[in-house]
Specification:
Layout: E1 5-8, H1 13-21, E2 27-29, H2 31-34, E3 44-47, H3 61-70, H4 72-80, E4 84-87, E5 107-108, E6 116-118, E7 144-145, E8 154-160, E9 166-172, E10 179-183, H5 187-194, H6 197-206
Parallel strand pairs: 1-2, 1-3, 3-4, 4-10
Antiparallel strand pairs: 5-7, 6-8, 8-9, 9-10
Length: about 210
């Protein structure tokens, strides 16, 4: 991956461990430091899956989501300037889950399922993937997106079989600008801890 990638340190090990295992270079900053980042110096904003058992771990999900929310208009400008956005599953336990995006989106949170189905095999994010390889990671899915509750510049490329709702959305901002991939799956977790090949392929394709 030959891009300049920026991400936030949410205190979730697998967010960047998966990138390390894949040999992907990135810049990671604290939520506080992200306020001062010039996004246009980067090609992709990457947000790993967001869940942390704070009984056991010290995480920064609240502050990380807050800075994303506070900089939503800057993220919009970044996308309009051709920047890319890749964001993985957000459980729906934080009030700002998915609400930091610079557009409205509706989602089904805490949707812990296993059966994913590809509905657009032609999309490059699904290259070398199958419905079977995206399923049964032991909780492959953590959220889905409500049909028609997302902008028309995004299209579903996979779906959650259980609900029939879109699982991964992809498109170009306002049809013309930066590339967006949003997913209710957590390939970063399952590649880090399960070494599942499809998770590596998914991450590389999305980036």
């Amino acid at each position: 991956v030959d891009y300049e990638i920026i991400t936030i340190d949410f205190g979730i090990y697998e967010n960047t461990a998966a990138l390390d295992l894949l040999g992907i270079n990135y810049t990671m900053v604290s939520p506080t430091a992200f306020y001062d980042i010039n996004l246009n110096e980067y090609d992709v904003l990457y947000i790993g899956w967001l869940f942390c058992d704070e009984y056991y771990y010290s995480c920064a999900i609240d502050s990380g989501l807050q800075v994303l929310y506070d900089r939503s208009s800057d993220i919009s400008d970044f996308l309009e300037n051709g920047g890319g956005l890749v964001a993985l599953s957000e459980y729906g336990v934080n009030l700002l889950d998915w609400q930091w995006l610079p557009f409205d989106i509706g989602y089904l949170g805490s949707n812990h399922k296993n059966d994913a189905e590809i509905i657009d095999y032609e999309h490059p994010v699904n290259n070398n993937l199958t419905s079977e390889s995206l399923s049964y990671w032991s909780n492959s899915i953590h959220n889905a997106f409500y049909p028609s509750e997302y902008p028309d510049f995004l299209s579903p490329i996979t779906q959650d079989v259980s609900s029939g709702f879109p699982l991964t959305l992809a498109g170009n901002y306002n049809h013309l600008y930066g590339r967006i991939v949003l997913s209710g799956q957590d390939p970063d977790y399952h590649y880090t801890y399960g070494d599942i090949e499809a998770c590596a392929i998914f991450i590389l394709n999305a980036l």
